[in-house]
Design goal:
The chain is of the alpha/beta class and 192 residues long. The protein contains 8 helices and 5 strands. A 5-stranded parallel sheet has the order 2-3-1-4-5, with helices on both faces. Bound molecules: uridine-5'-diphosphate and magnesium ion. The site of magnesium ion has 5 residues, from helix 1.
């Protein structure tokens, strides 16, 4: 198993690149944001729990998110690996992830961060908001809140894996194809 965390701020291109990476490497794509949106779309108890946080650009509480991730992993135990997109978002989630993988005789292979300039993030998100229908992409103050939550709560996750020698950064500016080729070169190096 090769489990990869695709990391980076909102708008850094995780979802777009994750779709290509799972095609290339046969991994299972797990996007906690997509899972929450599906739950919200079906108006499940979990979706109702997550909705208020998401609409404000806050994080859903760790135990809710970790429980949902764990269920997803156990639904698909026999895959070549997981590609985690948008998770972990806090150091507590990172610790939980390491523990739950270890309990299944697995581990995180690497964290790969997409590095994108702040102004570019905001314009990509506003552009996405015009077509995605996502209310959290349509309001610049909510976007700024998500970026600030990212800097304060999520960025330390990079240091957590960096301290274990497992964090790598890829330039996330440029065309989708250019960025994909940087990412796949990084993954190829890691898998060797
Ligand atoms: N979210 C969360 N925990 C997660 C994933 C998503 O709390 O593990 C919430 C959070 O409110 C976030 C929103 O869902 O702003 C959208 O997440 P997604 O990953 O889709 O956004 P992205 O960062 O990719 O724009
Ligand atoms: Mg996303």
């Amino acid at each position: 198993m090769f489990n990869v965390i695709l990391f980076g701020p909102p708008g850094s291109g995780k979802g777009t690149q994750a779709a290509r990476l799972v095609d290339q490497y046969g991994l299972l794509h797990i996007s906690t944001g997509d899972l929450f949106r599906a739950e919200m779309g079906n108006n499940t108890p979990l979706g109702r729990q997550a909705k208020d946080y998401i609409e404000k650009g806050e994080l859903v509480p760790d135990e809710v998110t970790v429980g949902m991730l764990e269920n997803r992993i156990d639904e698909f135990p026999n895959v070549p690996g997981y590609l985690l997109d948008g998770f972990p978002r806090t150091v507590a989630q990172a610790e939980a992830l390491v523990g739950l993988l270890r309990a299944r005789d697995q581990e995180v292979g690497a964290l790969i961060a997409l590095d994108v300039e702040e102004q570019e993030l905001i314009s990509r998100l506003l552009l996405r908001g015009q077509s995605s229908g996502r209310s959290d992409d349509q309001d610049e103050s909510i976007i700024r809140n998500r970026l600030s939550v990212y800097r304060q709560e999520t960025e330390p996750v990079y240091n957590f894996f960096n301290a274990r020698g497992q964090a790598f950064t890829v330039n996330g500016m440029g065309s989708v194809e250019e960025i994909f080729s940087r990412l796949s070169r990084q993954v190829d190096t890691l898998k060797k």
